[in-house]
Amino acid sequence: MLPLYGQETRMRHIHHIISAFLTLLLLLPSATMLAEKSSKELRAMADKKYNAGQYPEALDDYIRAMEQAEREKDYRNCAACTGYIGNIYDAYGDYNSCAAYYAKGYALAKRIGDSNLQSNFLTNLVTVYCRLGNVKKAHYYYSLSSKTPNTQDKDSWRYYLLYDKARILTAENRFWQAIAVHRQAEEYARRHGMDPVRILFQMSEIGNIYVRMGQYKEAISMGRRCEAMADSLRNGELLVNAYKMLADAYSLGHQEAKARLYRSRFFSLSDSVYNMREFFNVRHKLNEYEDRVNNERLNRLHDHIYMQNAIIFITVAFLLVLAVLILYIYRKNRHLLEAQRLLISKNSELAKQDKQNQLLLQEYLQKDGGCLSENEDEGAAQRERPISEENERRLLFKINDVMGHTYFFANPDCSLQDLARATGSNTHYVSWVINDSYHKNFKALLNEYRIREACRLLADKEHSERFTLQAVYEQVGYKNAASFIRAFRKVYGMTPTEYRRIINDEE
After folding, report:
1. Who has the most CB within 10 Å: 36, 327, 451, 486?
2. Both 143 and 255 in a single domain?
3. What is the DSSP code string of 160-205?
């Protein structure tokens, strides 16, 4: 047996050498072309656009930089890119995607042993899980954050510990305690001469809490302060928040004229700061990247199965030769009969294993495409525009905000009617906007959110014992395992169990 394995290894080495030589020949014609930009150069381009508030353009460059960093095995730069991608998703209210990229960045930071980078990602994870209403996870990451100091900037680390504590209190509806801690964070920032934006952060959070408490007079007062400060700092994001805060506060105070004024300012500035249509176009590229990564995993699995089959074939052939030899010896020595029977039994087991692997390979080769084909009685979406472009943008903004919350899409009885009610519209308009912007129907969009969240849970190695198959499909909104497995297979061409195995095998 050993000589045969040695021969197979030598043959594989020869095959790899020939493949590498042919690849080199193919690359020679492009040797005169300009070298591809490095991941650091691409990231520098992205950072410049990000700091200028050009989020869709920055997202496009961060995707390219992340891909290049992975090819260069520059995991530090890759972690930085994932962090900025998470920030952009956070700015657009897609908190589930944001959490996934922060978690990926944290894992990369742990991989390279950078405690300061870990600290930054832990703070971001606390924030996003507070926004998702997952207080348990927020507490978990806060505990890790308190034990992972940023040695390069201890003042910022202590500031964000206060900030994160206030966010958790807010998520627990302990509003007065949250306001007190936000004021502590504000005073800490003033005392240590930090960027005024950090002070504005606390003021904005306090104002939003006042709105949630129905304290509209206090909210209006804080909103005006935030508006003036954000305007002086030329901070578009926080100015948008101030406009929304004032619109909500004036509405609570039954001052509808002022509420309409600030609501108009909110939508106008939102369209300027957040180019939603361009963002969705770039996000499509990111989804293509994620799908490509999954396909690469499938290809690696295909190669693994192919190698297993080759080994089994060689083993079976060897055992067949050995069986003939034993048969020959048996004719001369009947004492070897039992050995022959055992060998035949072993050969049968290997043949069954070979058949099982062939069936598995065939299953992956014949997998369905990634697009869902569910049909839902949503009414015929007219090709003609039923609403104005401005109203479409506003409705798209609301749809994206609602669908970004786990509690919505994880509801097993979630429907188009529920989404219409949540956005303050009707099913016809909502269905038309989804079809026009996402190029799919509501059911397909709902399944996309559910399956992507399921993938995140399945890939969570730290809590794999808690995320059983049943726990996963119930948490993302499926009523039974059969419908979940069927939907998952349509998207990724494999079962959830197989997907988790691939993720674990990469460790």
Report:
1. 451
2. yes
3. HHHHHHHHHHHHTT-HHHHHHHHHHHHHHHHHTT--HHHHHHHHHH
168 contacts 126 by C-beta, under 8 angstroms: yes
Q: Which two tokens stand for residue 312?
A: 């089994």
Report pTM: 0.51
Q: What is the pLDDT of residue 466?
A: 77
Q: What's the CA gap between 238 and 236, in Å, rounded?
A: 6
Helix axes 442-458, 95-112, angle to 10 degrees: 20
pLDDT of residue 11: 47
Is 322 strand, coil or helix?
helix
Domain-ending residue, one of 329, 349, 365: 365
Angle between helices 154-171 and 115-131 (to 10 degrees): 20
CB 331 within 8 A of CB 324: no
**Domain span at residue 491?**
389-505
- pLDDT value for 388: 87
Regarding whether 448 and 310 lie in a shared domain, the answer is no
**Measured torsion, CA atoms of residues 480, 482, 484, 490, in degrees rounded to the nearest 10:** -160
Of 330, 365, 400, the domain-final residue: 365
| Same structural domain, 88 and 142 | yes
Overall number of domains in the chain:
3
pLDDT value for 449: 86
C-alpha distance from residue 297 to each of 48, 69, 101, 285, 464 (Å): 33, 18, 19, 19, 20
The verdict on residue 107 lying in a domain is: yes
Query: Would you state the pLDDT for residue 303?
Result: 63
Q: Distance between CA atoms of 326 and 169, rounded to whole angstroms? A: 76
pLDDT at 445: 87
Q: What is the full DSSP assignment across 478-495?
A: -SSHHHHHHHHHHHHSS-
DSSP codes joined into one string, 136-166: HHHHHHHHHHHTS--TT-HHHHHHHHHHHHH
pLDDT tens sequence across 93-127: 788 888 999 999 999 999 999 988 999 999 999 99
Give the domain CATH number at 250.
Answer: 1.25.40.10
Q: What is the DSSP string of 192-245?
A: TT--HHHHHHHHHHHHHHHHHHT-HHHHHHHHHHHHHHHHHHT-HHHHHHHHHH
